[in-house]
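User: I'm writing a tutorial on reading structure tokens. Could you give me a worked example: one chain, its sequence, then its tokens, then a sentence or two explaining what the tokens reveal?
Assistant: Sure. Here is the example chain.
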Amino acid sequence: MKIHTPHSHRPALTALCGLFLLLAQPLASAPVWAEGQAAPKAAKLSEAEKKDVARIETALNEMKSVAADFLQINDQGTMRHGTIAIERPGKMRVTYDAPDKDFIVADGSMVHMWDDEMGQQTSVPVGEGIASFILRDHIKLSGDVVLTRFARFPAKLEVTLVSVKEPEEGQLTLIFEDKPLKLRQWRVVDAQGRTTGVNLENAREDVSFPDSTFTFVSPNLGKSPNAPKR
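And here are its predicted structure tokens:
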């Protein structure tokens, strides 16, 4: 899976929470990993760091569902707020706060993205790339991803991951609050070198969501096909 930037004149929508836009399969080609360029190298971990990685895997696999508010920041300093609902495996909803009306729904097999300014829906298969692993049924920070960086801070852990097969698709950094270990932030650098960060706020785990949460309903449903765009 390679990262694609939709042909939209709204950069904020192309970022759509950074992590979650990367769930989509490519709609067009992205920059290709240079032939002969060295593959990303796995970080050398101490025994203590290996134990921390195991703790992170356990924490992610125990996170079956989560609801949170979020703050999204791109590398131009643009900020957007909204809410996220995640139900593993494969389901997610991202909704931006008013006045934004953009949203994304992953229903387990497809990712549906709504660009309200354009009045358009894009639906693509859920991918298997570096970012989509957080919605997987079983999460491992190895195998088809390479852990290229591990960093410990007084109350925080960071791990950076790159796809083994397609390192050109970018990298994902997960940031955890420690003791107790909880996912609090992530940072995506895409194939074009653009960075999007997402901070989770007021996160609640083990949430029961209505089935409708992960069902995409087009805002155009029931409207006349000749109705003017907003």
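What the tokens reveal: The domain at 11-26+40-202 is CATH 2.50.20.10 (outer membrane lipoprotein receptor (LolB), chain A). The mean pLDDT is 80.
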